[in-house]
Amino acid sequence: MISLYIIKYEKLQNFFHICKYFLMFTSGKAVRRHPAYKKIHDMMLDEEVVGGDETTENINGVLKWLWTWRSERLTYLAGGKGRGPKDFDSEYPDGFPKSTFVSDRLPLYYNVVAQGHQICIAHLLRNLIYLDQLDPMQDWSKRMQELLRDAIRQRKHIDWVDIDRADIVKRFEKLLDEPLDKLDIEFRRLQNSLRKWKDAVFTFLYNKKVPSDNNGSEREVRKAKIKMKVSQCFRSFKGAEAFDVLHSLMDTAKKNGQSAFNVIRAIAYPKAIADGVYLQF
Q: How many CA atoms lie within 13 A of 114 on its CB side?
């Protein structure tokens, strides 16, 4: 059976124009600073809550780091970097002065300028479980876990005004002051780290929009990790950059109810971005 479809010449011309530029883009020939990509980067600075994370990426045998910044409506990936302060500053040198910044306890995040910080409680609980296994006879790590889980439980199941923040902070400070000299050095390291970050542990109890974990940022880099698992590496830096831009655009579009085809059209007609013709964030 043969089917015949009649399509206007103008539509065919438009379709092949889109295919041409999309293939150029995915082959790494497009400029990294695509207007929509740049727009996402700039809009991130005005978000109330921003999460950040980083992961390794293999670019043709060279180990680099892929960074991600995200909010409820934006995703921004930038790879081919190191893991130091200058790499973070290459994208956001002034930090996020309007935002609460959610992250793990990577030392450089402590110095990120932000309206407030929230460390990932899920990461912290994993650290405490490790201490349980390291020394099953002590109960400091168990009591810290109970406190953190109680804080999360109250946030989820108790009316906002009824959360006993004063009691939670009091119990936390008591655990921070408790002498751990007789335990393994790993206990003191974590305790000292929490003393340093103590103002960033329970931010989620004071701001309803702040999550208790950084799982959202980890989800943003998952597609890149799947790519690494399947193909082992990016073949070139340009290909890795194209992936960063495409994923940033696709994920941001999805968060804002935009179709994937609109992203492809935005790539084909970058000048239309300024007018919000295809993508509207």
A: 25
